[in-house]
Structure formats: C-alpha cells, structure tokens
What does this fold into?
Amino acid sequence: MNTEQIIQEFNSNYGKYYQFAEQLNILLKSLLEKYDINVHQLCFRIKDKDSLENKLIKKINTMILIKLLILLELELSLISKMILIRYQTF
It folds into this structure.
C-alpha cells in the first residue's frame, strides 16, 4: 500500500479507530479502578489526516495513541501486571 491508499483507508475507517480507542480507554479506566490504581491522566487521541501523512513519510505508522500518566514508579509496575493478567486469558 502506498501513502495515499493508507490515508484513504484511514479516512474511511476513522470511526472504527475512534471507537476502538474509546473502548480501550474505558477498559483501562475500569481495570485501574478495579485494582485501585490512581493515575494522573488517562486519555486517547487519533491521528488526523495531515499528522498521519507526516508520520508515514517518516516511516512511523502509529494511528492511535493511548496515554497513561502516572506519578509513582510503583504504579507503573502495578499497571504492567494488571494489563498482563487481563490479556493472558485471551
């Protein structure tokens, strides 16, 4: 696929990418609450067309970003374990 085709596919599937990121954000939030882990910030964003095009030119193809800001290193370890436990069942 060339850059133009990737961008066209991205545009036609943008809603699906948004729903995926939103659902992942909700899942992470519920897991954090379940394990009583406090984070400073949990958010997501989807690349826009221009940003995606620039990333493709630089050979970086990240379309969805989930950002989790924590304040303590201990929380990082807990979050890593939480995610591993959750996804080892698949």
